[in-house]
Amino acid sequence: MTHAPISACPACNAAPMAQNLADTEHMAGHILLNVPTVHCAVCISSIEKTLNAMDGVKEARVNLTLRRATIDTTRPMDVQVFIQALDQIGYPAYELDASLLGQSAMEQTARRLLTRLAVSGFAMMNVMLLSVAVWSGAQGITRDMFHWISALIAVPATLYAAYPFFANAWGALRGRVLNMDVPISLAILLALGTSIYETSLSGEHAYFDAAISLTFFLLAGRYLDHRTRSIARSAAQELSALEVTKAVIRQDGQDITVPVSQVQVGDTVILRPGARMPLDGVVIQGQSEIDRSILTGETRPEFVTNGSELRAGEVNLTGPLELRATAVGQDTSLAKISQLVAIAESGRSKYTSIADKAAQLYAPGVHILSALSFLGWYLYSQDLRMSLNIAAAVLIITCPCALGLAVPAVTTAVSGRLFKKGLLIKSATAIERLAQVDTVVFDKTGTLTDGDLTLIDLPPATAEQLQISHTLARSSAHPLAQALAGALAAQGVAEIQLDQIHEHPGYGVSAFYQGQQVRMGRAEWIGATPRDHTATWVQIGDDILEFAFADQMRGGAADLITDLQQAGIDVQILSGDGLAPVSRVAAALGVTKYHAHRTPETKAAHIAQLQAQGRHVLMIGDGLNDTAALTSAHVSISPATALDAARVASDVVFLGQRLDSLIGVIALSKTAQRRIRENFQLASLYNVLAVPVAIAGFATPLIAALAMSLSSITVTLNALRMK
Fold first, then answer.
1. CA angle 558-563-568, nearest 5°?
2. DSSP 204
3. What CA–CA distance (Å, rounded) separates 596 from 586?
4. Could you tell me where the DSSP H helices lie in 475-625?
C-alpha cells in the first residue's frame, strides 16, 4: 500500500530539508515517536518494516491505539534519521519525551479489576452449587458442612474481590460523605458477618452466595464503566510530551545541541529548515516562512524576518533562522496551552454524573432503613441475632447491584451502537453531557474542511509554462509548492529542464529556462497583487500565473449542520484562520455566527464565555490550537485524523472521514438518558416491592439472591434496548 505524504501540519513535508541532523543526536537507546496518521495494520507493517531495516535498530514496534512507534537501538542514534525515514514513506512523525509519559495507571487498574472479576465469578459458581444443595432441603450436619465450605470459598474471595468497594467507601467516610460504595460495602460485610455467625450457631440461613454474587455483578458493572475510559489519557501530559526536547544554541561561535531545559532567556537559538520551535523567541537574523497551523489553524504560511516573533510548536519551512530566546520552559506558548488544558480538565472533573446524584440520595436512605429495621425488630423481639439478620437482608435486597449496573449497562450498549457509526466514546459521562448540548462550536481547518490544500483550477497557460511551473514546484519544499507539484503531476503535466535552481528563503524559488529567469513564490516577490485566498504565483517573462488553492469541505459537513440547526441547536465556527476563508466556509454551510483569527487562548475564552451564559457547548476540533477549547467545553469531539493531543482531550472520537456520521448522536444520547432514568426507576420499583418482605423477616437468602439477580437482569435488558 503506497501512501502519499500526508501530515497533521503542512510543514512536515519540509522536514527532509533539516540540516546537520546529527546535532540532535538522541543519547538513549530507546526512542519514542508520535505517528498521528497511522490507522491500520498495513500502516503498522510499513512503519515497522522500514524502521527495523535501518542500521542500528534492535527492534521497532508500533502501537495503533496510542499511535506511537517505539524504537530500541543498539547505539546512540539521531532521532531525526527515523523521522526523515518515516516522512519519506508518507508518515510524518514527532519525537515524544518518554520521561513525561509514564505507565498508564488506567491499564493497571483494568487488569486488577478483571482479575478480581474472574476470582469472584469462579467463587460465585462454586458457592451457588453448594447453595442449591441447601435450598433443596439439606439439613443438620450436611447443611452446616455446605455452609462452612461456602464460607471457606466466599470469605477470602469476597474480601479480595470487593477491595475496590471497601477502599472507595473508606475514602468517602474519611471525607465525611456518602457514595454508592458505602451501602455496597456495608451489605457485603454484614452478609459475610451474619453468615459466619449463623453458620457457627448451626443456623438455617447464610448469605455467602448473596455476598459473592453481589460482588461479582458490581465488579462487572465497574469493569464495563472503566473500559469506557480506558483509552483516555491526560491531554496536558500528551501536550507536554510533544514539546521539542533539544535545541541548537550558539555559544562562542559554535553551534551546540543541548536539552531545552538548559536554554536560558537571551540565548541565541539556531532554527534550521524543517525544525520545530522549542521555545518562544524573536528573529535576529534570517528570513523564512513559518507554519503556524499547529497553534492557530492558519493554513497559509507566514513570512518572518528580523524582529518577527515565533512561538514554541511552530515550524520553520524554508530558511535558517537565528533567534533570541524570549520565553523558555513553563513560560512558552505551548506550555501555557498545556496549563490551560490541565485547568480545564480539573474543572470538567467536577461534573456530577447521574449515578453520583443517585448515590447521594440512595446511600443515606438505605442506611436509615436498615438501621430502623434493626432497631424496630430488636425493640420488638430483644433478639440481637434475628435483628442483625433482618438488617443485613434489607441492605442486600435493596439492590445496590441494579443501581450499580444502571449507568454502565446503558453506556456500554450506547457505546456499541455508536461504534457501528464509527464513534468511540472515551469518557464515562460523555453521553450524559451530550444529552444536554444546546450549542455546537466547530473548528474550520481539518474539521469542517479536510485540511489539505487543493488546486482550484489551472490558470490560462501554455503547456510549456505548466511544465516550468511543475519543475519549479518540485524544486521547493514549501507546502504550497508541493501541493502544486502533486496537482500538476495528477493532470499529466511533465517536468522540464531548468538551470541554476535556487531557493530564496521566505520568498520562493528561481531558475533559468533557456537563458531567461523564471520564478515561483510570494505575490510581493513576483510583482503580483496579493489576494485574500491562498495562492502561489509563477513569473515567466512578462506572464504571471496565479495558482489558487482552497480547503475542500469535509464530506457530510453541510448535512450535519442542517440537522443541528433543525434541532434548534445554535451552530458557530471558531477558527484561527483568516476572515476571508472562514467567511467563505460559513456562507457555504449556512452558518451566521463565525469568528476568525482566534488563538488557542481566545478559543478557550470564547467557550468559557458561552458556558458562563448557561450554555452547554459541544466543541468539535482537531488541532493543537483546539485542545484547550476541547477540554474547556461541556463535551467535545475530534476526528481520528486529529493531532494526538486533541484526540486525548476529546470525549468522543469519530473514525470516518465524513461528518454526517455525527448526525443523531445528540438525540441518541438523550434516549440513553431516558434509559438510565428508567433503570433507576426499575431498581427503585424492585426495592419498593422487596423491602417490605425483608423488613417483615421473610427475606431468606434464596429470595435475596433471586431479587438481586432479577433486578440486575431487568436493568441489563432495558439497556440492551439501545441496540
1. 125
2. S
3. 11
4. 479-490, 523-526, 557-566, 579-589, 600-612
Which of 270-274, 337-341, 589-593 tops mean pLDDT? 589-593
Name 544's bridge partners: 539
User: Which CA distances in Å does 702 have to 21, 200, 396, 706?
Assistant: 73, 20, 12, 6
**pLDDT value for 97:** 59
Tell me whether strands 423-425 and 321-327 are parallel, antiparallel or unpaired: unpaired
Strands (E) across 495-632 are located at 499-504, 508-513, 516-521, 534-540, 543-553, 570-574, 593-595, 617-620
pLDDT of residue 456: 80
The mean predicted confidence, pLDDT, of the chain is: 78
Tell me if 109 sits within 8 A of 211, measured CB to CB: no
Model pLDDT, residue 342 = 57
Amino acid at 271: L
Model confidence over 104-128: pLDDT tens digits?
A: 555 677 788 889 999 998 998 888 8
DSSP secondary structure letter of residue 276: B
Contact 366, 373 (CB under 8 A): no
Sheet of strand 652-654, all strands in order from the earlier edge strand to the far edge:
423-425, 652-654, 635-639, 617-620, 439-442, 570-574, 593-595
- Cβ(473)–Cβ(487) below 8 Å: no
Pairing of strands 246-251, 254-259: antiparallel
Over residues 187-193, the mean pLDDT reads: 83
Q: Which residue has the cell 441496540?
A: 723
**CA R_g for the chain:** 32
pLDDT of residue 148: 92
Identify the burial level of 459 via C-beta atoms within 10 angstroms of its C-beta, where 0-12 means exposed, 13-18 middle and 19 or more buried.
Answer: middle
Nearest alpha carbon to residue 35 among 79, 66, 78: 66
Nearest to 212 by CA among 150, 298, 290: 150
**Contact present, 581 and 444 (Cβ < 8 Å):** yes
Q: How do residues 394-439 score in pLDDT, each as one tens digit?
A: 777 775 666 666 777 777 777 777 777 777 777 767 888 888 999 9
Contacting residues for 480 by C-beta, under 8 A, at least 6 apart: 301, 453, 534, 535, 536, 549
Quote the pLDDT of residue 571. 93
Residue-level pLDDT at 616: 92
C-alpha cell at 483: 501541493
> What single letter denotes the amino acid at residue 630?
L
Where in the sequence numbering do the catalytic residues fall?
A: 443
Domains along the sequence of the chain with CATH: 1-96 (3.30.70.100), 106-227+351-411+671-720 (no CATH), 244-331 (2.70.150.10), 422-451+554-670 (3.40.50.1000), 452-552 (3.40.1110.10)
Indicate if the pLDDT at residue 72 is higher than 50: yes
Which three three-digit cell numbers place residue 682? 426499575
> Is the predicted pLDDT of residue 336 greater than 80, yes or no?
no
Distance spanning both ends of the chain, measured CA to CA: 36
Cβ atoms of 171 and 225 closer than 8 Å: no
d(C-alpha 77, C-alpha 639), whole Å = 34
Query: C-alpha angle with apex 663: 659 to 667, nearest 5 degrees?
Result: 150
Of 190-194, 520-524, 641-645, 671-675, minimum mean pLDDT range: 641-645
Confidence band, pLDDT 50/70/90 cuts, at residue 600:
confident
Q: Which three cell numbers stand for residue 204?
A: 438455617
List b or e across 379-399, with b for residues whose CB sees 16 or more CB atoms inside 10 angstroms. Answer: eeeeeeeebbbbbbbbbbbbb
